[in-house]
Amino acid sequence: MTTAVRLTSDKDTGVAVVTLDRPERLNAVDLAMRDELQETWRELRFDDSVRAVVLTGAGERAFCTGLDRNAVVPQPHSPYMADDPLLRVGPKANDLWKPVVAAVRGMACGGAFYLLGEADFVVADTTAAFFDPHTTYGMVSAYESVLMAQRMPYGEVARMMLMGTAERMSAGRAFDIGLVSELTEAGGALAAATECATVIAGYPAEGVQGTVRALWAARESAVAQGFAQAAHLVALGNLPEERQAELFAGRRGGFRTR
């Protein structure tokens, strides 16, 4: 069976690498990949030989480009209920309190922020570029905005979410504002992230995991309050699917990078 998520573990270092493995789709998340990610995070909860995790994407073009547009997501026929397919895709949402370091190469956009928002810190190479296409296609950036508002200055996250596909944040700018903690040469993010994870995995797990939990505690009440509003904002603000498809089909190719 073809898998969309690769998990490799080094028992000597205590580091596991989780790789989004759909490079032909720019590592976009379909429902099968979503399910595999959930299973992977839950599996790692019970593997005491793994003490730190690196999350990355296969290929050179993208870390992750969010939800695959071909994914069919059934929705309840009620304005009071909505199923967000990526809401439980990250490590914290699956009760994993081992440190997760993200290694970003290429594009990271849209639903990728569900994953980056639950990583403990981000390492990127010079090819990394961050943007959110939602507004361009008549959709509300809600969950992504809530998560990124915990990682970036308000003005920076507002600009990213509102500018849509017209603008991309460069790896250098992401480093300057603190979204990225380390900037490497092209192709170097995975090695640098793994080096950090190896150091962390060498410390006693109890103290490390308690620190991860404390750090998330400082953010989770704000995230929970934002998420409580997100579904309603999406329902109110999203254009119908046919209008979204029309905008997507006519999308412009140009953008600026800052």
UniProtKB/TrEMBL annotation:
The Gene Ontology terms for molecular function here are: catalytic activity
Any Pfam family hit = ECH_1
Q: Which family does it belong to?
A: Belongs to the enoyl-CoA hydratase/isomerase family.
Top-level taxonomy: Bacteria, Bacillati, Actinomycetota, Actinomycetes, Kitasatosporales
Q: InterPro entries this protein is in?
A: ClpP/crotonase-like_dom_sf, Enoyl-CoA_hydra/iso
Report which superkingdom the organism of origin falls in.
Bacteria
Q: What stretch or stretches form a coiled coil here?
A: none
Q: Which organism is it from?
A: Streptomyces guryensis
What protein am I looking at? Enoyl-CoA hydratase/isomerase family protein
